[in-house]
Amino acid sequence: MPDRVYLDWNATTPLRPEARTAMLAAWDLIGNPSSVHAEGREARRLVEEARAALAAAVGALARNVIFTSAGTEANALALSPGLRGPSGGPVGRLLVSAIEHASVLAGGRFPSDKIGQIRVTRSGVVDLDHLKAQLKGGPSALVSIMAANNETGALQPVAEAARIVHEAGGLLHVDAIQALGKIPFDIKAMCADLATFSAHKVGGPKGVGALVVAEGLVGLEPVLRGGGQELNRRAGTENVAGIAGFGAAVTTAAQALPELAEHMATLRNRLENGIRAIEGATVFSDDVERLPNTVLFTAPGLKAETAVIGFDLEGIAVSSGSACSSGKVQPSHVLSAMGFEPAVAQGAVRLSLGWSTEPDDINRVLEAWRKLGNTLLRA
């Protein structure tokens, strides 16, 4: 559908040409990457090149990159009660911010009675004072705070949170899935102990993710057992073609990042100005630093489900928030955590841009918004 406008990049991105080329070449290989013969070694080479590419992009060592089936599995692998904190003892509980992705809110392998939540501000940023209070008086904790929220785009104070967590004898996991390819992310600069990523958010294929751990991390327990793949951290034959595509996408994204971020921010700002032309329209988290490509907005009386359908009929793909609910349009738990009433949360629409978004696309979206806004808000 070449005449359509795609503004749901936070849900998934188109496949980059470089990733497609890498995958096609990988599909021609017949070897298992665990085999020692020439065919196996060639498949292994592609996996290790991709591992090195991701490591270089996020400031890690290649030996600390673990490929998984998706970001969700990477989060589940990271949230392990067996992890050992700076004191050498295992973490005894899990603290997650209230705006995390569902795969983090689920708590990984921690029992429900060992999971707590960290509040966020009205702007959608983690409340560091509440984090400090939660860390006092209990066992050492694994804390999970995303780098950037998938709905509002709000950037989180990861480095400061890491300092607080480490001073309390805990560990920090960062879901950096939305950050990769949109803003710089360095696991060492952020002082994170674990970070998760997903290929299809950065121009790679769906169905490939990765967990990156800091050097020296101890106690990570595999979710999948039964084989020695991924340095004994994740059993199962590697998805060679998917991993090759991931590596190619990451390399391309890293090279394009500075120029792309500026391009997206310029278009986002023009988009927001046009959205606000409808009386009462509100852009969430616009008072804090955000991803350069993300706009979450609403207007009095707007219903997200109706708006998403309306935009779709105008040839524009948008979202009501997270796209991980089997296609259902549901009230945003992120906005609820930020303190907004259900009626507001039910009316939030997310627009997210990418590398192929052009000024003409923004013109079409704003034209559709004027039409929909004047129709839906008067109904």
Describe the protein's architecture and organization.
By secondary structure, the chain is an alpha/beta fold. It has two domains: 130 residues, Aspartate Aminotransferase, domain 1 (Alpha-Beta Complex), CATH 3.90.1150; 235 residues, Aspartate Aminotransferase, domain 2, CATH 3.40.640.10. 37% of the residues lie in helices and 12% in strands. The protein has twelve helices and twelve strands. Helix 4 links the parallel strand 3 and strand 4.
CATH superfamily of the largest domain: Type I PLP-dependent aspartate aminotransferase-like (Major domain)
Low-confidence stretches: none
CATH-defined architecture of the largest domain: 3-Layer(aba) Sandwich
* Percent range of helical residues: 25-40%
Order of helices and strands: EHHEHEHEHEHEEEHHEEHEHHEH
Structural class, from secondary structure content?
alpha/beta
What name is given to the CATH topology of the largest domain?
Aspartate Aminotransferase, domain 2
Specify the overall morphology: globular
Cα-atom radius of gyration: 21 Å
Main sheet?
7 strands, mixed
Mean pLDDT: 94
Total domain count = 2
Strand order of the largest sheet: 2-8-7-6-5-3-4
Please report the number of helical segments: 12
The CA-CA distance between the termini, in Å, is: 30 Å
Domain Aminotransferase class V: 5-365
Family: Belongs to the class-V pyridoxal-phosphate-dependent aminotransferase family. NifS/IscS subfamily.
Keywords: Aminotransferase, Iron, Iron-sulfur, Metal-binding, Pyridoxal phosphate, Transferase
Protein name: Cysteine desulfurase
